[in-house]
Amino acid sequence: MSAPDGGAVRPADVAGTARRRGPYAKSAERRRAIVDAAFDVFASRGYRGGSFREVAERVGMSQTSLLHYFPSKEDLLVAVLARRDDVEPEPDPDEVRCRAGEGARGRAARFALSIEAQAEANVGIPGVIELYAVLSGEAVTADHPGREYFVERFENLRRDYVEELTALRELGVLRDGVDPVRAAASIVALWDGIQLQWLFDRDAVDMAAALRDYLSLILRLPEH
Amino acid sequence: MSAPDGGAVRPADVAGTARRRGPYAKSAERRRAIVDAAFDVFASRGYRGGSFREVAERVGMSQTSLLHYFPSKEDLLVAVLARRDDVEPEPDPDEVRCRAGEGARGRAARFALSIEAQAEANVGIPGVIELYAVLSGEAVTADHPGREYFVERFENLRRDYVEELTALRELGVLRDGVDPVRAAASIVALWDGIQLQWLFDRDAVDMAAALRDYLSLILRLPEH
Questions:
Q1: What is the CATH number of the domain that holds B29?
Q2: ipTM of predicted complex
Q3: DNA-binding region at which residues (chains A, B) (predicted)?
Q4: Mutation test of the interface with chain B: which of A196, A198, A211, A216, choosing the one with the most B Cβ atoms within 10 A?
């Protein structure tokens, strides 16, 4: 890593823009631009097809500069996955109006529809889903740079779902005998597992339908 | 791979035992011994901790000889996973008698108990479960040597479960509205996904309970 910096922070930037806007803001902005570019590259090319080189080219940086922001490919890929977590697709408002309706059952339906919408959006970014499958598998091994990300991601997802399922139980729209803690883990598990099968054979499974079926089993949804 | 063979097939074997029993039987036996040793090594040490060297030592072979049977670490690891598929743990007969009972509901309960028994057995072999998680993730990428194994494994598992769920539906013990094809994929998915979470945090999830919950949602089990 002793090669001269090839483009990340040019002297002019440091003297001009960066000073006016603060070096931290500048660095954060560049970091975001790298992650955006990496998202696009890996979304279209997948885990093996995507390369550091192509990401560097897209943001007009040398690979050496890129390594200043992300010391390893794994670090960059984890940032790509974290970015996906931040951009939750929203369900179609017309569908929500039509299928969810009002009241407690409406809230249960909105919860189900938001999960379905994300599952459907994932069909459009197979490269990112592939990235997720490879990294989540690798990261179970000790000392993997992505381990902490996945531990936290699972904790956060389970906690969010436990909260919503507990609220739905209080509203009387969680089916009898369903445990919010175990059901929360099961939603996440089913989702990860069905994505894995989908990556091996896209015609064999329907990701959104598998989640919809499960949610219909545990929730009292509006009757149509 | 030009190093002399260090122990796999000694001249004495070729002239004696191997000729009497046929070279194919000899080779198959040695292959099995390697996979058995690799299963033990990776079951106790996990994906990163296990090594070709240790497997070779256990079977009294050089690493070069080992590579004659399994050209890459991935090939050997896939064979370890395939071996696990062959050894399905059976549920405790007393528990089956007590919880399953007779008739159609009894058959549904036996199906559920056999899945639970396997999930519980997996708790005892975290190294193999780790291996499965790493390889199934890696194998989604094109040209991975394990890809074909996973494609087939998922096809076989889904087909077996579809058959059993269809039979249970005919016996009237599949709940209304449950689709055997989607439920079969969901059992496999839930299982893979809950194992993944368990590898990141063994106290956070109960693998057997997640599967039991799901099977209770889709099957009419005996009432106790």
A1: 1.10.10.60
A2: 0.85
A3: 51-70
A4: A196
- Tokens 């072999």 locate to B125
Query: B204: which chain A residues are within 8 Å (Cβ-Cβ)?
Result: 154-155, 158, 185
Last residue of a domain, one of A84, A100, A119: A84
B74 touches A: beta carbon within 8 Å? no
* Residue A165 DSSP SS3: helix
Q: Which amino acid is at B78?
A: V
Closest to B48 (Cα-Cα) out of A134, A133, A140, A141: A141
**A190 interaction partners in chain B (CB closer than 8 Å):** 186, 189-190, 193
Sign of CA dihedral A110, B217, B224, B207: negative
Best of A186, A218, A224 to substitute, by most chain B Cβ atoms within 10 angstroms, is: A186
